Description:
homodimer, mainly alpha, Arc Repressor Mutant, subunit A, Tetracycline Repressor, domain 2, 2 domains, DNA-binding, transcription regulation (chains A, B)
Amino acid sequence: MAVEYSGTGDPARSMALLWRAADREGRTGLSVDRIVAAAIELADGDGIAALSMRKVADKLGVGAMSLYTYVPGKGELVDLMVDQVLGEPERPELPASWRARLEHVARSNLALYRAHPWLLQVGTARPPMGPNLLAKYDYELGALEGTGLSDVDLDTTLTSVLAYVNGAASAAVESAQAPDRSGMSDEAWWEVQAPLLEKVFDPQRFPLAARVGAAAGEAYGLIDPDHAFEFGLQRLLDGIEAFIARN
Amino acid sequence: MAVEYSGTGDPARSMALLWRAADREGRTGLSVDRIVAAAIELADGDGIAALSMRKVADKLGVGAMSLYTYVPGKGELVDLMVDQVLGEPERPELPASWRARLEHVARSNLALYRAHPWLLQVGTARPPMGPNLLAKYDYELGALEGTGLSDVDLDTTLTSVLAYVNGAASAAVESAQAPDRSGMSDEAWWEVQAPLLEKVFDPQRFPLAARVGAAAGEAYGLIDPDHAFEFGLQRLLDGIEAFIARN
DNA sequence: GGGACGTTCCGTACGGCGTACGGTACACCG
DNA sequence: CGGTGTACCGTACGCCGTACGGAACGTCCC
């Protein structure tokens, strides 16, 4: 397994692609849009590890090298995929309370990660400055409008919430994928693991881990990653509420 | 870039490796420990994308296939790397206040991610149940001891903090790596990006993004990812404090 | 000392990857 | 109909993880 980073090619070319300047269509009907769509479909289904230029090309009934007429390389293709899916979530009028708005933003991001788990693997520093990223940023900032926070605090607060969502969504999404990926339910996994662990783990040495681990295992279903997501989100929003109140 | 998942081989073999049961040393001095150490060094330096069995073997002056005498495959090797680095942080006696303790836990995890950025890319569902993971869990639960929370809430609260740290550390670490990886400072990157963006971005359409983005850019240095990390952490802890108080 | 055996080490090979390079075949313009 | 630009893509290179089978070695028994 490795990690996908952004394209490092000509920034002007990348920007033109993101904003679909000079969008052509070849004689076989190939286009940037179709390539990006096929790539997203592949990554959604089999994970980003299974995304290859050859497979994208196969899916489109085209030779692998034909893709390079439209896209400079795989890095740039991933950038395009990212901006593309960032445009998917509907962005309805937001409710009146900032807290309900921010909750909506958080859950909508979770849903996006759920739909496209590979988003969690692509770097977010130096993001692809596409139209959908910008629209998303604008929309999400709107959640905090009217709270009286300074512009800088607005950005920082949103960043913190998105950081939390990223981390909690990682746990939730991975946990949801694990059974499929491994062909083993959580229960089955534990049934294999528990007796092995028992042989090497000394509860005397780590009493807290033993006690709390057992309690957490017992309560599984009540405290799965989805509930952990909501719990942490509410705590974070409580803290933000206090911050807003005292500002 | 792809993503590294855990080994999917024989769980008993994996467990034996993690706990170093039956640790041998070959005639060339090869051993699981030396392989894991070499792999960590490679991943720390060049990222997990640059970690390959052949490079690990080269580093040890050994043929690639020799590694497979000690380690079933790359997935298991990554598991071993993870448990190994989880054992690195010192775990001193914790301060008296739960809040100071939890802050310590959060910052210590950030430091770990900084030291081993590739940790952010490996899946955490179905974690490798090694000695150091368990020790870490036990130690970190200790931060919340004495707060009066139930065992289940203990686990959930810790999970939430770690989720936040994971997300915020992703941003901080990637942002710190970006200049090296791209050979371009943040300023240089913006100098290239800004004029391109100006051509396609309409501030009228996204007034909030334009205003706040400008303010955030202006304040950069004051609100870099490190400060965002601390800001969000304090908000989250504030929320947890309220939760503890009302429990 | 000699032989047998188990383990360690690894050369080779297979199927996959991203993509550089250069050629072919088509659409369009004159 | 001929010329030109571009879309398409076959081939090849250097990587990857690892299956397979053989070679080299340490150890033990006779």
